[in-house]
Amino acid sequence: MVDIHSHILPGLDDGAETLEETLAMLKVAADNGTTDIVATPHANSSYAYSEQVADDLVAQLNESVGSLIRVHRGCDFHLNFDNLSKALEYPAQYTINSGRYLMVELPDLASLQVMRTVLGRLLGVRIVPIITHPERNGPLCANLGELRSWVMDGCLLQVTALSFFGRFGQTAQRAAETLMNSGSVHFVASDAHDCEDRSPNLAPAYHHVGQTWGQDAAHALFYDNPTAVIMDEPIFPSAPRAAKKSRFAFWK
Fold this sequence. Notes:
It is built from nine helices and nine strands. By secondary structure, it is an alpha/beta fold. The chain has a domain at 76-230: Metal-dependent hydrolases (TIM Barrel), CATH 3.20.20. The strands form two sheets. Strands 3-5-6-7-8-9 form a six-stranded parallel beta sheet. Strands 1-2-4 form a three-stranded parallel beta sheet. Helix 4 links the parallel strand 6 (101-105) and strand 7. The longest helix has 16 residues, at 215-230. It starts with a strand and ends in a 22-residue tail after the last helix. Residues 239-252 have low confidence and may be disordered.
């Protein structure tokens, strides 16, 4: 599996605090089938993001872990005015492996129409936004139709593995399943912050997706699509499928 969202770099945000914790997280990921993991420290008003610092830490980790697991550099890009201005001018500072894909976390309180316009500006400079954990964003959970329109514009969606098991509440769990039922999800990632509560172990979610939506879906969401991201290869989002019957299909 390939994990495109994690907070494993030590001391940069609210994820791993020490190098020892980072190495323990990488071992958990590797022991449970992850071959590649993208380090995505926050870039927001609380945590300053430095491409050079992140690159140096990623290089140090790859040297330390050898063949255990491969670490890549990205960031958890919070969509605000300052970040947007910088990304439009210097996109490679924020995108995964300096390619086309950008992990984008949307604010909880914002006009969805404004967000669509802003995402369109990123797409206009050939940045592909990957909307992180939309199932945990209240306004998006209330408007699946708007989210589907973003996918048709060219955005991609990443759901958090633990959302399937209720870690972020029933609303997020229901939203994750509804998005899966509609065929709108392109990635499942860990958004790992530690070894236990928010672990980088993707195996339970992989098995859940495989059993519920089929092995082809699991392979696409945990391997094919995230591999394309770290290799900077194109992913072509398809039209979302009609939602199948589900106890969680509550959106109109």
